[in-house]
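Researcher: Good morning. I'm working through a list of sequences from a screen, and I'd like to move beyond sequence-only analysis. For each chain I'm collecting a predicted structure so we can compare shapes side by side. This is the next one on the list. No need for commentary yet; just the structure.
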Amino acid sequence: MPSKNPLKIQFTLRDRDILAALARTPLTATQLLEMSQTFVEPFTQERLVRRRLQALTAAGWAATFRYFTTEAGVLNYYKVAPAGYRLLNGEDAILPKRSFFNPVSPSLQQHTRDLADFIVHTQVHALRFRSQLPPT
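Model: Good morning. C-alpha coordinates for this chain:
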Protein backbone atom coordinates (compact mmCIF):
# COMPACT_ATOMS: atom_id res chain seq x y z
CA MET A 1 0.00 0.00 0.00
CA PRO A 2 1.68 3.29 -1.05
CA SER A 3 1.87 5.90 1.68
CA LYS A 4 -0.34 8.95 1.35
CA ASN A 5 1.91 11.88 0.48
CA PRO A 6 -0.06 14.42 -1.58
CA LEU A 7 2.56 17.13 -1.05
CA LYS A 8 5.41 14.89 -2.21
CA ILE A 9 7.66 16.17 0.56
CA GLN A 10 11.13 14.71 0.71
CA PHE A 11 11.62 12.29 3.60
CA THR A 12 14.78 13.25 5.50
CA LEU A 13 16.87 11.80 8.32
CA ARG A 14 15.34 14.45 10.56
CA ASP A 15 11.86 13.22 9.59
CA ARG A 16 12.90 9.70 10.56
CA ASP A 17 14.02 11.01 13.95
CA ILE A 18 10.73 12.91 14.38
CA LEU A 19 8.58 9.90 13.51
CA ALA A 20 10.65 7.62 15.77
CA ALA A 21 10.16 10.07 18.65
CA LEU A 22 6.41 10.26 17.95
CA ALA A 23 6.22 6.47 17.84
CA ARG A 24 7.73 6.37 21.33
CA THR A 25 5.28 8.87 22.88
CA PRO A 26 2.91 11.68 21.85
CA LEU A 27 4.81 14.99 21.88
CA THR A 28 4.03 18.69 21.74
CA ALA A 29 6.12 20.96 19.51
CA THR A 30 7.96 22.26 22.59
CA GLN A 31 8.80 18.74 23.73
CA LEU A 32 9.93 17.80 20.22
CA LEU A 33 12.17 20.87 20.06
CA GLU A 34 13.93 19.69 23.21
CA MET A 35 14.03 16.08 21.99
CA SER A 36 15.60 17.26 18.73
CA GLN A 37 18.88 17.74 20.61
CA THR A 38 19.24 13.98 20.11
CA PHE A 39 18.53 14.15 16.34
CA VAL A 40 21.07 13.99 13.54
CA GLU A 41 19.97 17.52 12.63
CA PRO A 42 18.46 19.36 15.65
CA PHE A 43 15.90 22.13 15.35
CA THR A 44 16.82 25.64 16.46
CA GLN A 45 13.34 27.17 16.81
CA GLU A 46 9.90 25.92 17.79
CA ARG A 47 8.45 27.66 14.73
CA LEU A 48 10.50 25.35 12.50
CA VAL A 49 9.33 22.31 14.47
CA ARG A 50 5.70 23.33 13.99
CA ARG A 51 6.21 23.90 10.27
CA ARG A 52 7.73 20.45 9.79
CA LEU A 53 5.06 18.77 11.90
CA GLN A 54 2.41 20.44 9.73
CA ALA A 55 4.12 19.09 6.61
CA LEU A 56 4.37 15.57 8.08
CA THR A 57 0.70 15.72 9.07
CA ALA A 58 -0.31 16.91 5.60
CA ALA A 59 1.69 14.04 4.10
CA GLY A 60 -0.23 11.58 6.30
CA TRP A 61 2.84 10.47 8.30
CA ALA A 62 1.85 12.16 11.59
CA ALA A 63 -1.43 13.09 13.24
CA THR A 64 -2.38 16.16 15.27
CA PHE A 65 -4.63 16.16 18.33
CA ARG A 66 -5.50 18.69 21.05
CA TYR A 67 -4.83 18.47 24.74
CA PHE A 68 -7.62 19.67 26.98
CA THR A 69 -6.04 22.42 29.08
CA THR A 70 -7.03 25.12 31.52
CA GLU A 71 -4.28 27.32 30.12
CA ALA A 72 -4.94 30.05 27.57
CA GLY A 73 -4.65 28.97 23.96
CA VAL A 74 -4.58 25.60 22.25
CA LEU A 75 -1.99 22.94 22.95
CA ASN A 76 -1.56 20.41 20.16
CA TYR A 77 0.25 17.11 20.43
CA TYR A 78 1.41 14.83 17.66
CA LYS A 79 1.51 11.08 17.16
CA VAL A 80 2.88 8.92 14.37
CA ALA A 81 0.19 7.93 11.85
CA PRO A 82 -0.12 4.43 10.35
CA ALA A 83 1.62 5.56 7.13
CA GLY A 84 4.47 7.05 9.17
CA TYR A 85 4.74 3.86 11.21
CA ARG A 86 5.08 1.85 7.99
CA LEU A 87 7.62 4.34 6.67
CA LEU A 88 9.72 3.70 9.79
CA ASN A 89 9.26 -0.06 9.99
CA GLY A 90 8.69 -1.14 6.40
CA GLU A 91 5.57 -1.57 4.28
CA ASP A 92 5.03 -5.09 5.62
CA ALA A 93 5.20 -4.02 9.27
CA ILE A 94 2.33 -5.22 11.41
CA LEU A 95 0.61 -2.17 12.82
CA PRO A 96 0.01 -1.88 16.54
CA LYS A 97 -3.59 -2.01 17.71
CA ARG A 98 -5.83 0.83 16.59
CA SER A 99 -5.73 2.61 19.97
CA PHE A 100 -2.00 3.30 19.37
CA PHE A 101 -3.00 5.83 16.69
CA ASN A 102 -6.11 7.24 18.41
CA PRO A 103 -6.19 10.42 20.50
CA VAL A 104 -5.22 10.12 24.15
CA SER A 105 -8.24 9.74 26.41
CA PRO A 106 -8.99 12.97 28.33
CA SER A 107 -8.52 11.16 31.65
CA LEU A 108 -4.98 10.15 30.64
CA GLN A 109 -3.82 13.39 29.03
CA GLN A 110 -2.02 14.90 32.05
CA HIS A 111 -0.28 11.60 32.72
CA THR A 112 0.71 11.34 29.05
CA ARG A 113 2.16 14.88 29.05
CA ASP A 114 4.13 14.18 32.22
CA LEU A 115 5.40 10.88 30.86
CA ALA A 116 6.45 12.56 27.59
CA ASP A 117 8.36 15.20 29.60
CA PHE A 118 10.15 12.40 31.45
CA ILE A 119 11.01 10.54 28.24
CA VAL A 120 12.34 13.69 26.55
CA HIS A 121 14.39 14.63 29.62
CA THR A 122 15.81 11.11 29.92
CA GLN A 123 16.66 10.86 26.21
CA VAL A 124 18.42 14.24 26.14
CA HIS A 125 20.43 13.53 29.29
CA ALA A 126 21.31 10.02 28.16
CA LEU A 127 22.89 11.57 25.06
CA ARG A 128 24.78 14.12 27.17
CA PHE A 129 26.26 11.30 29.23
CA ARG A 130 27.04 9.28 26.10
CA SER A 131 24.44 6.66 26.74
CA GLN A 132 21.53 5.57 24.59
CA LEU A 133 18.03 4.29 25.25
CA PRO A 134 16.95 1.16 23.42
CA PRO A 135 14.76 1.76 20.34
CA THR A 136 11.00 1.33 20.63
